Amino acid sequence: MSSIMGILYYYSGKIIDNxxxxxxxxxxxxxxxxxLNSSFDKFKNLMCQGIGWNLVxxxxxxxxxxxxxxxxxxxVGVPITSNMCFNAIDRLITVNRLQILELYxxxxxxxxxx
Length: 114
Known about the structure:
Ubiquitin-like (UB roll), 2 helices
């Protein structure tokens, strides 16, 4: 079972993960609806196509910003790196009936690309 989720993502800026959670400087935001499915690679491809990033040229990190357990004011970053992690997040979203998924994307050149 997959969810339709509003995706709010931040990219091209500087992401700082500190004691108070994630701070984001510069960059852009975009909000649209996307059906979550069981493939992290497909999800990452759709996200990167939406902002014009070529996955052949860049390695892309995706981090989910979520409230910390027991802390209603502190956000933590949860890296999304694999199908297992993506599926666990999909289950959390479905169980908790979340409507917005806030993601942070950063990129660096693939090895061998300049």
